[in-house]
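Hey, can you fold this one?
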Amino acid sequence: MNEWTTHTSEYPEVLRRVSAIAEENGYRLNPDLDRVAKVVGLMTNNWVETGKYVCPCKQSHPVDPAVDVVCPCPPWTEEITQQGYCFCRLFYTDPDRAERKGDAGGKTHCAPRSARPSS
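Sure. Predicted structure:
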């Protein structure tokens, strides 16, 4: 059961979609499963309401599919390259995958700001 959506039959498909996007692009989902459940649950609501995977973190209120961005949003790779995760904190770099390849697969792993030494 997901507290963020009542659309329990649609939620697993939206979760599979974002998981596949992460895998196909060399990323991983946030290890914080509560955060994933929140973002994907709210995205599921948007999917059911609009027929689009509107990003719940960058949407207008009420959701406007004519202007709101679809997940993954256009700057997601730039956000992940700069911060190690996207704005929603749904997609993260996958350091294990980079280690297996011997490089970051064209993507740069940056530690979260909280883990960086202060300047």
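The first strand starts at residue 27 and ends at 29. Let me know if you want another pass with a different chain boundary.
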